[in-house]
Amino acid sequence: MAEPKKSVPNDKKPSRSPFSWMWILLVFLLAGQAMVFFGSGETETISWTEFRRGMLAKGDVEKIVVINKEEAEVYLKPDKIGEGDYADIDKKNSGPHYSFNIGSLENFEQTIDEVQTDTPADERIDLQYEERTDYLGNILSWLIPLAIIIGIWIFIMGRVRPSGNMGGSNIFDFGKSKAQLFEKDQSKITFDDVAGLDEVKVEVREVVDFLKNPTRYTRLGAKIPKGVLLIGPPGTGKTLLAKAVAGEAGVPFYSISGSEFVEMFVGVGASRVRDLFKKAKQNAPSIIFIDEIDAIGRSRGKAASFQSNDERENTLNQMLTEMDGFGSNTGVIVMAATNRGEILDSALLRPGRFDRQIYLELPTKSERRAIFEVHTAPLKLAHDLNLDQLASQTPGFSGADIANICNEAALIAARRNKDAVEFADFMDATDRVIAGMEKKNKIISEGEKKTIAYHEAGHATASWYLKHADSLLKVSIVPRGRSLGAAWYLPEENVIYTKEQFVDRLCATLAGRASEEINFGKISSGALDDLEKVTKQAYTMVAYYGLSEKIGNLSFYDSTGQYESSFQKPYSEATAQLIDQEVKSLVEAAYERTKKILVEHQAELEELAELLLKKEVVYKDDLVGIFGERKFAESETASS
Q1: Domain boundary among 412, 435, 458
Q2: Domain AAA+ ATPase: where (predicted)?
Q3: pLDDT at residue 600 above 90?
């Protein structure tokens, strides 16, 4: 394959001259108009009274020329020039020497006749009439306003011109693609800046290698993939991975969001798709990256009655045609990212369009440690930082969450006037990201505080004595965000869960309400979040995972999203009632079991509650002192 085309880097834009040709033309027009208005500067304008009393009455005027019946030019007698009142006039000046507006021509002629009543005929003033046409003035009178209007129009068009390397040149280029072009060496992010995605990077790196060394694959008859789709939860690094591809590829890289294709004007989205692929083909080999492709790639035909128009569908149809239609896209690879892969149209996902679908999962402990290494590199760290412990205590965190924790830790350290970011700052940052800002000044009565303490002590006690409950790290009754207290766990990193593990988690979650009932004989609204989690998990066990004996080995989980916009359920009303009964039985059994555990360990529960009222935050060492060493071995790896 031929060497990739080298286009001129567009990071250095040519400087625009402050004086364009329009401004130069305007200056010339104004200068010409000034010449018309001010003339040569040799004729002095006077008033009618000055002319009548100062010149006409004294007999100094040789002749008068009336121009267009509006203005009079006065010529003085040669012997009067350069003397007396006219000493400042050059004798070589043949005139006209003065000019004035005559007003009414009839009155002017009558006045001249009255003044010369007794004047001999040979000495009378010669009164002449001329019709003059000011061609330059007439031209400028309509040319200058026109030039001003054109100048304003050009100025407006320049201001509304879209920014960026791509896009239309003026306000009417709706159908032009708005994709941003990254040339070689423009993107500074490489695969070294992407941590925790080693397996994904192998597949994506192969795409870059396709473009750099195509013969390595085509010599065996293989075809270069046309599309790569990145699917994963938010914050897992899909867009960052695309930026790394732009930095590593060494070929033109077009980046655009899916929402930028769709406008209120019909046909704009399809036009932009055509324009984007046209430019990519002209600069092949190249890469097109479409972020959040679900904005235009939603499955067609679902809930059609609720669609206001089919502009998004037209855009998708054009995308399908461009990716694998009759035309060829040699040297153009399309990358796309979404966190809702289940709603994409099946035609978009078939081989020949997006040949490769890469799934990005939440990072494991080792991957989280690598991500921490990347984001802590620019920070000034203290010597007590333990990345392994940080990775263990952030289960279920995405790369974006970890980046946020590192930034929050630096902000907390700066707020405390520290010289380096310590491990305690990272712990506080983790708490803030999970539960929100600490609210020590929140007004809570003593009775409410005691209820919260016993509630959280119930969670801690039950989880300590349940085999499959998560390992407990600390318990707090300090309000954070919307929560009044919290128990912090270290979930085990499991791929699959058994029914026993689910039931133990239900019991640990219900322990807060059970503790309130046992110790106070009444329950409160403080278990709202716990009950929400329990209800969702119980329905998941029964309706999705088939962990109910009465329902059997059936799952009503919809991985295709077919029932998402439908009013129908994938089961009958009788089955729905059975599911509700099974969920209720499952939760009631877990609740009774939890109360039994708390009654057996009532003394430890009360001791922990009183310690919480005293210290507000109790760590694992204090928990071991109250409950003793936990009988169940903790997993060496921890994640969510």
Answers
A1: 435
A2: 224-364
A3: yes
